[in-house]
Amino acid sequence: MDVFKLLFLELFLFSANAAPLAERLFMLSMDHIPTGPYYSNVTGNVTGWHSSPIWPAWWMNGDDRSNGEFDMFEAYEPNNHASITLHDWDQSLYGNCTMPDNITQYANSSGNAFGGITQFSPNGTSLEPFNKAGGGVYVMQWDHGKFIREWTFVKPNIPADILNGSPNPNPDTWGMPNAYFPFGKNCHPDTVNHMYLILNIAFCNGPVTEECKDIVRMQPEAFNETYFLINYMKAFCRPNEKCLTGIYGSG
Ligand SMILES: *[C@@H]1O[C@H](CO)[C@@H](O)[C@H](O)[C@H]1NC(C)=O
Ligand SMILES: *[C@@H]1O[C@H](CO)[C@@H](O)[C@H](O)[C@H]1NC(C)=O
Ligand SMILES: *[C@@H]1O[C@H](CO)[C@@H](O)[C@H](O)[C@H]1NC(C)=O
Ligand SMILES: *[C@@H]1O[C@H](CO)[C@@H](O)[C@H](O)[C@H]1NC(C)=O
Ligand SMILES: *[C@@H]1O[C@H](CO)[C@@H](O)[C@H](O)[C@H]1NC(C)=O
Ligand SMILES: *[C@@H]1O[C@H](CO)[C@@H](O)[C@H](O)[C@H]1NC(C)=O
Ligand SMILES: *[C@@H]1O[C@H](CO)[C@@H](O)[C@H](O)[C@H]1NC(C)=O
């Protein structure tokens, strides 16, 4: 594997595949999201996809290819929103997922691009504006049979039950989510299943160009803001549900 393609700075791994229909919350509180330099050449900045050599992400991946992928947060382009994506990797098994056309009724998000499964949180909820505000909390709620919802809270707009460290935070009091993926006829609930959780920063992941590698090799000072400052990552499960089965060190 090309080290530039996938460099895991941190790796948290656990199985979250216990009882079907279990409702789970995954909460990541950060004071700082990694930002990086942008490519520039004689024409100016490269814009759009992969315009930075860094690609920070908080995501879930299936334990084999058929189990799908859910990306709670990816920053692979300069827009300061979180890219939130459901991947249906095995369409022969589960069919294709589609979003309701009227998604803005259910989520304060935009996008719906790339096969109808990516949603963007509002501008200002990631990268520099997130860091300037002193950080925030991303929360993903996965109710296996019903939906995945996500909120991207930026300080000072963090719900009180999260701030207070409540053992029973209540998503129904948090207002409109910033992404909403309903399961049912539009998307088979088992499209995402048997997931493990990953927090990582990939360097020069698509395209892996020499220009990109050179920036990483030769300009370390350009990456002085490329770090996560994490307060905590929490997983909430139903009482007696064994959802956190192990934490493994960095890989
Ligand atoms: C390139 O992007 C950076 C970061 O957004 C910005 O500060 C800089 O002015 C841009 N440079 C050009 C030539 O557009
Ligand atoms: C500079 O980047 C732009 C945008 O990606 C690209 O179209 C152009 O070919 C690049 N120019 C050079 C000289 O590499
Ligand atoms: C899912 O959508 C893709 C792209 O439109 C298409 O190529 C594929 O055949 C579809 N798969 C199923 C099982 O419908
Ligand atoms: C939104 O779209 C869904 C699926 O197309 C439909 O069932 C529902 O009635 C729509 N809701 C509203 C308020 O338009
Ligand atoms: C959506 O988010 C933007 C930016 O945070 C905010 O200004 C707007 O009021 C929100 N809209 C709704 C319907 O919550
Ligand atoms: C977010 O910012 C990008 C880049 O400035 C812009 O193209 C896009 O329209 C904005 N999206 C929203 C929902 O305001
Ligand atoms: C990184 O470098 C920039 C430009 O020199 C500087 O403004 C910024 O404060 C530095 N950040 C850190 C965390 O050292």
UniProtKB/TrEMBL annotation:
Any GO BP annotation: glucan catabolic process
Keyword Signal: yes
Superkingdom to which the source organism belongs: Eukaryota
Pfam families: GH16_XgeA
Signal sequence, renumbered to the chain: 1-18
SUPFAM superfamilies: Concanavalin A-like lectins/glucanases
Keywords: Signal
Protein name as annotated: Uncharacterized protein
Species of provenance: Acrobeloides nanus
